[in-house]
Design brief:
The structure is a single chain. It contains 8 helices and 12 strands. It is α+β, with helices and mostly antiparallel strands and 318 residues long.
């Protein structure tokens, strides 16, 4: 398939932080409709050089993917993983040996002839939104949402806390995966290739600072407004302005046209047809290291074991 896009939009704000650790690739000032790779990285606050880590990982990954397009135009998972290894190598080179390693989350979409590849590590998020679907169903129009690699999300999945408790959870910023230099085992990205792409769709990448104020319903409501994309972006910015504590950044990538080719294989209807939110679950090989099995008698609850493990290893201090 041949996918064309409209002019991508982005913003990058400090919030109430002293420094900016979010990084967008390519530069929002230079991006055009010819770009096919979009990356957002959120440096890990409280770690040395979080802004250096986000810049290094995003630049290395984006540069490699752009310079090494697939011969047939179809990006595969092994191809992306090879590019991700280059980004990890770049992080290894900036390691100063400090006790707190620089680190970053990663979100990336690549528009290619096989669809739109979405990959992420950490709690920055990727959405695929179809506003026309929301218009007909009254729902948000979100048909894909990446699943955060975070402590609060893991606790939600195993039923230890509720959605209401998660909103004000004291350790919301503890993440279970991040890109860091010289990891004993490099964290893999969750990778999902989206083939159900239609004109009028949007891809939205954002750091967790945006999610302090922006709900899924509000995001869907903004994107289905009959106004130019720049006004939609400004509406999202205004939701965050003055209220978001963390750095907050985003990419908004509108889909203009999708042309099927003779080599395209028809796909079965997916969650989009039912207006259901598709949340990508990690595969077994990318599950978080700490297993949340029920403890044996006398070992205490799972949440306690989980806190002990992650507070000692993964608190990013944001």
């Amino acid at each position: 398939m041949k996918i064309s896009i409209l002019q991508p939009k982005a913003f990058k704000e400090k919030g109430r932080r002293d420094n900016q650790e979010d990084f967008l690739w390519p530069s929002p000032e230079q991006v055009t409709v010819a770009n096919r790779v979009f990356i957002l990285c959120d440096g890990m606050g409280g770690h040395d050089n979080g802004e250096v880590a986000s810049y290094t990982a995003a630049t290395a990954l984006g540069t490699y993917l752009t310079a090494h397009p697939a011969p047939d135009g179809v990006l595969t998972k092994p191809m992306f993983e090879a590019a991700l290894a280059v980004a990890y190598d770049a992080l290894d080179k900036i390691d100063t040996g400090a006790s707190k390693k620089p680190g970053t989350t990663l979100t990336c979409i690549v528009v290619h002839r096989g669809g739109v590849l979405a990959a992420h590590i950490g709690d920055s998020r990727i959405y695929h939104i179809r506003p026309s679907l929301a218009t007909h169903t009254g729902r948000s129009g979100i048909i894909y949402q990446s699943e955060d690699h975070s402590l609060v999300n893991q606790l939600l999945r195993i039923g230890e806390i509720t959605e209401e408790e998660a909103a004000d959870f004291p350790q919301k910023n503890v993440i279970t995966r991040a890109m860091q230099p010289h990891l004993e085992r490099r964290h893999k990205a969750d990778i999902y290739n989206i083939t159900d792409v239609k004109p009028g769709d949007y891809f939205f990448l954002c750091s967790d600072g945006v999610l302090e104020q922006l709900t899924n319903d509000l995001l869907g409501e903004i994107l289905r407004r009959n106004v130019p994309d720049e006004e939609k972006l400004q509406a999202i910015r205004m939701v965050c302005e003055g209220k978001t504590r963390d750095n907050h950044s985003c990419w908004l990538v509108p889909i203009a046209e999708v042309q099927l080719e003779a080599t395209d294989v028809p796909t079965l209807p997916d969650a989009a047809d039912d207006a259901a939110v598709l949340t990508c679950r990690p595969s077994e090989e990318t599950e978080v290291e700490a297993k949340l099995d029920a403890p044996a008698e006398g070992e205490g609850c799972r949440i306690c074991a989980f806190f002990k493990h992650f507070f000692s290893r993964h608190n990013d201090g944001k």
